[in-house]
Amino acid sequence: MVAVFCGKVLRGERPVIYGDGTQTRDYVHVADVAAAFLAAADLPQAGVWNIGTGVETGILTLAEVIGRRRAGASRRSSPPPGPGSGGGGGPPPPPTSDR
After folding, report:
1. What does the pLDDT look like over 55-82, one tens digit per residue?
2. CA distance 17 to 40
3. What's the pLDDT score for residue 98?
4. Cα–Cα distance for residue pair 53/84, rounded to 1 Å
5. Overall pTM > 0.70
6. What string of H, E and C letters represents the secondary structure of 4-60?
7. Cα 7 from Cα 1, distance rounded (Å)
8. Domains along the chain?
9. What domain of life is recorded for the organism (predicted)?
């Protein structure tokens, strides 16, 4: 999401945010994920490991921070909520035939 938002802002486009932007994510740098993966590989037991910072950041906050880095690009586009967007709604169901 960070790369997509940055790419849009650099092209002078608005980041697309589904829902109201209050959804949160835990953004982790890839180097930190790689380090955690290597550390887990050295453990004597197998397991399932959650890797994160423990810090939630709202999607709208992310877009605003990226927008501030590029003056004049902090506006965003908000399409109607779709499936999996956390905003409910979604596109209407396909028409059905009454045959």
Report:
1. 999 999 999 999 888 765 445 556 666 6
2. 34
3. 46
4. 23
5. no
6. HHHHHHHCCCCCECCCCCCCEECCCCHHHHHHHHHHHHCCCCCCCCCCCCCCCEEHH
7. 10
8. 1-42+53-83 (3.90.25.10)
9. Bacteria
Cα separation, 88 vs 95, whole angstroms? 20
* Of 86, 89, 90, the residue nearest 17 (C-alpha): 86
Confidence of residue 30 (pLDDT cuts 50, 70, 90): very high
Supply φ then ψ for residue 62, to 5 degrees: -60, -50
21 Cβ contact list (under 8 Å, min separation 6): 58, 59, 60, 61, 63, 76, 78
How many Å is the maximal CA-CA distance in the chain? 63
